[in-house]
Amino acid sequence: MSSTFGTTFRISTFGESHGVGLGAVVDGCPAGLELSAADLQSQLDRRRPGSNPLGTPRDEADAIQILSGVDQGLTLGTPIALAVLNSDQRPGDYAGMADAPRPSHADYTYRAKYGHSASSGGGRASARETLARVAAAGIAEKLLGQWYGTEIVAWVSSVGAINAPDLVGSGLTRSAVDGSDIRCPDAETAAIMTDEVKAARSAGDSCGGVVTCEIRNVPVGLGEPVFDKAEALLAHAMLSIPATKGFEIGSGFSGVTMRGSAHNDMYEARDGGQLGTVTNRSGGVQGGITTGESIYFRVAFKPTATIASAQESVDFEGKPVTVKGAGRHDPCVLPRAIPIVESMAALVLADLALRARLSQVQQ
Amino acid sequence: MSSTFGTTFRISTFGESHGVGLGAVVDGCPAGLELSAADLQSQLDRRRPGSNPLGTPRDEADAIQILSGVDQGLTLGTPIALAVLNSDQRPGDYAGMADAPRPSHADYTYRAKYGHSASSGGGRASARETLARVAAAGIAEKLLGQWYGTEIVAWVSSVGAINAPDLVGSGLTRSAVDGSDIRCPDAETAAIMTDEVKAARSAGDSCGGVVTCEIRNVPVGLGEPVFDKAEALLAHAMLSIPATKGFEIGSGFSGVTMRGSAHNDMYEARDGGQLGTVTNRSGGVQGGITTGESIYFRVAFKPTATIASAQESVDFEGKPVTVKGAGRHDPCVLPRAIPIVESMAALVLADLALRARLSQVQQ
Amino acid sequence: MSSTFGTTFRISTFGESHGVGLGAVVDGCPAGLELSAADLQSQLDRRRPGSNPLGTPRDEADAIQILSGVDQGLTLGTPIALAVLNSDQRPGDYAGMADAPRPSHADYTYRAKYGHSASSGGGRASARETLARVAAAGIAEKLLGQWYGTEIVAWVSSVGAINAPDLVGSGLTRSAVDGSDIRCPDAETAAIMTDEVKAARSAGDSCGGVVTCEIRNVPVGLGEPVFDKAEALLAHAMLSIPATKGFEIGSGFSGVTMRGSAHNDMYEARDGGQLGTVTNRSGGVQGGITTGESIYFRVAFKPTATIASAQESVDFEGKPVTVKGAGRHDPCVLPRAIPIVESMAALVLADLALRARLSQVQQ
Amino acid sequence: MSSTFGTTFRISTFGESHGVGLGAVVDGCPAGLELSAADLQSQLDRRRPGSNPLGTPRDEADAIQILSGVDQGLTLGTPIALAVLNSDQRPGDYAGMADAPRPSHADYTYRAKYGHSASSGGGRASARETLARVAAAGIAEKLLGQWYGTEIVAWVSSVGAINAPDLVGSGLTRSAVDGSDIRCPDAETAAIMTDEVKAARSAGDSCGGVVTCEIRNVPVGLGEPVFDKAEALLAHAMLSIPATKGFEIGSGFSGVTMRGSAHNDMYEARDGGQLGTVTNRSGGVQGGITTGESIYFRVAFKPTATIASAQESVDFEGKPVTVKGAGRHDPCVLPRAIPIVESMAALVLADLALRARLSQVQQ
Q1: Is residue B263 classed as helix, strand or coil in its secondary structure?
Q2: Which of C286, C296, C354, C362 to probe by mutation at the D interface, max D CB count within 10 Å?
Q3: Global pTM?
Q4: What ipTM, to 2 d.p.?
């Protein structure tokens, strides 16, 4: 039950890090959307291991295949099945880890929950699982683009204690973000961040950071009152990404220090008889429903749990053991998290866009 | 579709602020739980308007009634319907607001989404809606208490820029929290916070803050991999509470400045052949599944949008208008948010506890 | 989990036969529908015990109350809560039954499943539970009527071995159906059926029968391929009504004796560029999707399980016991089943009508 | 949304008849079940085109592949993805059909609903779609077998007007059913049925029939009250199979002619303190919950719509056209429907078996 996300635009993902393959079934994509595998490949390539000099050397082509749901270049309205076969499996890398749970990994909790667990590579808890989300989200992005011209751009805004200047509202593009390996669009900060990641790697250590995401060209009216507020679904989506520890939208945690008179977003008239807000501390939502202003939010990623240095822990029997990272892991997951954050946001919005069709008796 | 929360322990809530009544249907509560209305009333009383000198003067008894699902003091396994009738409706208070959307409220987004909206008091967007969640969550708490002795305690850890010392792990009780009107268990901080709230009210203004919540006696193994991770459902739950802007679990946003070697939680042997962690920066979850350590998280609440001071905005037609708060509203929602945060946490955990029964072929 | 029906137009019902009350929460009704309690009362009155001389003498006003979701005569798009309080509770009637499970009732299975059960009157297994469905379905009918002019008319086509002539396609109205107490619109057959019911009652016995239902003015395109075919959801809906044992659509069980060349429905041109079928053996669906022709189906109801005559059975301990019907029960549930069958059909179609809004990229 | 079935044991299927492949993702199978592809292949082989001399000559190996969710021969508790690649695609066979909707097929309704449709072979409306259900149901059967020793056996009880004697309760096995190509275990009837199918084929025609299914070794307590009664889910499941027109359980339509005193199933004591029923007219369910007696039901299949003879119909533009079957089709789908009926029954029961774990506070 855990591997389905969404209500009307719904994805069910599958696959272990070191199994035969990974993929997703997308149920609920309307008929008549132009779609090809190439549409999905670009974000997969941005997520791909080996794509980034700061990341893991695991090299996978991650070529996506569409198994069903598309005929003559158009979606059929039936489930779209996507699959990527694993080509670079190295279960042997993890052989030594079988008897001890890796600290701050899911080895212990999976075994406690399921009685046994994937014999190598983290199974469903591996970040490789996110590949299926990114593939499926390419469809969601295409829908949003066609309907509203929606643009979703995320970037690395902090690495460790290094913070980029606030770039929300500056019209960033994905290619600007990809201008540096660390995916921070501010060149000066990017250089310092890169040094920090390299220093961590040299020290056999890892670092965390923050991803900021902005969504432009969002129509007013997406989001459901009460439990499925747009911000609640975004929070759900972001905290479902491995290694995340926090989410804030609009003014977020820093907004709590303001008084209401300073925090409130006043309305103003816009073209076409709509209203807009002079400021946007709410982050593009009011009462769980989008205002038509840009959505922006921040996601905290903890430092990568697998490190090359030795750590004193215990094995599954409780006996002292020295644990040392093996396998292929990123000293900093932030750059590769960028397309994942964008993808989860796209899945939330496409789902809400379809649900919004059900709001009024008159369409 | 928006008013249902949970998968196996599932609640469907209903009711507008100024309608006939509010309530919930709880579907999925197992049979055989001792339950009475009194079990549900205590948290409702903590949430009740008028219960707190720092809050709104709206005074409602909010007496809960169990309409079905309980017979001779035991749950039947059938839906438990709960209802509270509204006794203190004052739709007239909102009469002047009908033509202009209140800034940082849901008036504009609701009207855009639905074509029309409740004629007074915010309808489903009113914080009064949370009454139904608190009522339903009393059942979830009772289940968790019986199964695991789970304790859920939340408190106000920040008001504006005033921060209480870190009290996670100090064994706080609800009665300690209720020791001050502001519901900050540190007496010295509570006094300063109270002054701040009074100052905001005097200035016709409002303030925000942070609620911290700790959950003790959680079994290992709750939470589903991938999309329904325990922290993802908690984030969803918390961001569905009106006025929330952020969620962080464990080390949260501040954890991003640590290196992996410092952040990782090492395992140690515990009684009964289980493992525990020496530190708990993860906040009680790994890979989306509870570790058996305490869960703790923080929730950001923006300053109350309705303030007594005049604000320059526009009406639904886009014409300039001066908006001024009317109706009954809290200058600071934090104290009354305490039982709501606890309730949403209880709903998440009860749902995951039932789902955990489905994890293994052998029970 | 058992008391929710529907995907987009979704109802969650609650209430035991002898508890405080029964009702439903309808989540997913779009905003902007004119709605009043009176709209829902008429079908409730047709279902009401005491409304029919052939039925149980239990007399309940069954006055429906709308608790939320409607403001100034229009639906808000938020959950519509409906409740009916039980006024004529007579738990004492069932006192003698507590120790023995009534034959062909749910007493034994409920106790086995839940460990204990409602102390009187069947709880959720009572036909009184269907009251909530009928109330909620009034909203679905109103939607369908406004959108398509859909008409749903059911009637008693068999009682015991007495069969009415085939009336499908004859344009029957509900008032024609209500022309006789037995609700068979063919007067001659109705008289014979009435005699049969009276004979059964005199003999301390009961009888079963068949309800036929026709749905006119259905648009083409409702129904989802594969699992949620229109006929599959109708079958689900009908077999969820107490005492039902069978469902058939179109040519049904008798169609199996035909060859394909005789059974196939040929297409013909219709006004507006649409196609119709010359015959309608399919019953208005092809591949799970409505064709635009009328839907018609038949539902089998077993003879009422509770009878006044003595039956030799065993108690919960397995000891021989003579069981004899008490409480108030119909010797033939068919007439009162009419609005229930219509209601379940309306719920299915309203749900599919909303889902059909999601089929194409272009609306 | 249409391609997901089940609540706790949930399958999402995908694939068109003439696309790249078909398959399913099974989410909710508990961890620790021994599973291999061979476990799933046997029912697929029984369903396989070309397996039966009375069926279509389309010959596919239909070799199932497990892509995820199983490690070292045990299920992981994570989604199990199953895929079969299409090897024998012949889209050309259907070229002539593109302009006219085949009578009693889904061509017209799909195009009306989706705006366009699969360019050949029926897409999701093809019976080939059921392959994915059968594959997924192999897992459900394995679970049921391990937990309860459940046996599910279906057979052809009618072809056209030819009826086999009542074999419910006679302890039939699948190998007895497979003793004849027509899959009617009564040899004498099987011979007559076979002649009837051959006669229909020779006449360029087709025939329908009835499948009866019996489920033995079912525990008491499966099924949910109200909407998800065991019989309602079975009816839903069966009517979701292509070409089905009716479902009846226990005494079904013929039971309506009995009086209650004759129809009621009296209880008797059984070993182990349980109760059983002397007769089983209810078909193994009371109030939607299994009694512990065998479940049996019947499913009506219409005659195959595609026939070799010419039929006068119209094309999509409404112009007269002669339609003649092409492609590869069965003159009688009944024999190949046997494993499909068994599979859908297994999916329903496995889902209910998991849900039954949630019924009581005490497990």
Answers
A1: helix
A2: C286
A3: 0.96
A4: 0.96
